[in-house]
Amino acid sequence: MRIFLYSLLFLSINQFSYAEPNLRADFALKDTAGFKHQLSNYKGKWVLVNYWATWCPPCLEEVPDLVNLYDQRKNKDLVVLGVVFEYKNIQEVSIFVDDMLMSYPVILGSDAVKAQIGSADVLPTTFIYNPQGTLVKVKKGLITRQYIENIIGPIKK
Asked: How far apart are CA 73 and CA 71, in angstroms?
């Protein structure tokens, strides 16, 4: 009986774990330019969803690698979506994006975004989806170009 009760408790806790990322979701996010990004529209491409904040030093450090990867691979096999959290206002975000020459789409973070993708207890956090649209990796903390390329492979010609 005791094992049965523990099993029920375990199932109940796991069933309602809202912090876990959605492994197979067809998220739809609107960027600051008003463009809708839907995971199913990117079949055949790797998709990186990077949670960041303007005040976050590791976020600042990883932006050049993300910009470089996006610029080199956006028309081939990679999509990068930046999701900003904990910002004062849209102007602060726009200034940061311009200063960092962020060429990839930026989405304003919200509870709706977290509900579709997942929560993050640290910033930056990057969710990596394979070309079939399945979440294959959640990287907490600083991410580098080398780390990403070790997962997605070299650029295809």
From this structure: 6
CATH 3.40.30.10 fits 22-152, yes or no: yes
For residue 48 the two structure tokens come to 């990186």
Return the pLDDT at 23: 52
Q: With both helix axes pointing from N to C terminus, report the angle between 57-73 and 145-152 in degrees, rounded to the nearest 10.
A: 50
Q: Which residue do the tokens 């207890």 mark? A: 121
Position 153, amino acid = G
Instruction: Give the list of residues 6+ apart from residue 124 with CB closer than 8 angstroms, or none.
Output: 50, 51, 52, 53, 56, 58, 59, 62, 141, 142, 143
Which of these, 100, 38, 91, lies nearest to 67 by C-alpha position? 100
The answer to whether the CB of 139 falls within 8 A of the CB of 147 is: yes
Beta bridge partner(s), residue 153:
none
SS (H, E, C) 47-109: EEEEEECCCCHHHHHHHHHHHHHHHHHCCCCEEEEEEECCCCCHHHHHHHHHHCCCCCCEEEC
Digit-coded pLDDT (tens) for 71-92: 999 999 999 999 999 999 999 9
